[in-house]
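Worked example

This section walks through a single chain of length 242. The input is the sequence exactly as stored; nothing has been trimmed or padded.
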Amino acid sequence: MFLDSINKFLQKKQYPSFSPKAVFFDMDGVLFDSMNFHATSWVKAMSDVNIPFTHYEAYMNEGRTGSSTIDGAFNKVHGRNATEDEKHQIYRSKSKYFESYDASPVMPYALNLLEKIKAQHLEIFVVTGSGQASLLNNLDNNFPNIFVKEKMVTAFDVKYGKPNPEPYLMALKKSQLNPWEVLVVENAPLGIESSTGAGLFTIGVNTGILDKKVLSDSGADIVFDSMHDLFKTWDKFCLNWH
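Given that input, the structure is written out below as tokens.
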């Protein structure tokens, strides 16, 4: 299974090898089991300004910058992008709702996987569409001695955000590695589109409410059912690198 996926990736991209030296992680839905809180917060904030928005839409839009998510919702209802004032109001409300939950539970087995990867002396990056300080600060608290600021790409660092490949291209540039020396762990369709668009081998982890096929159709090279599933098969997966 793993070798076939890797060989298909190499054939498609015409890369010389697959020899990862770094793993790029998405944050929400991968490191933190926070997407339900984000989705509920988006639904409430949009409802406050009479914009219909569902949990399913929130999951499908996961990874976008807040500005892009709001513009998409506004275009469906009003046929236009939101003004800067409207964006500020909605995102402020969304952030307030999210922070009221005071909960960013760590995704089960995320820390175990990170520690295993660190022990392999692979570099670890975070590539997230989030710009909320509460979550970024939680990285240090929940994953001590794993992440450093210089190996992070957030909403503040990009112009376009996911699904544009810009965030992963920026992380690739920071890493100073070749595309075949990186793999990505993502849970969101738009994040997968972003990473595959950057030419990177992408592992989809289905931690939300979407059908597993949605991640495959978005371009994931392999899809796992959970972070636990990825953790328990990681060593076997690594045996297929060459």
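What to look for: The first helix runs from residue 2 to 13.
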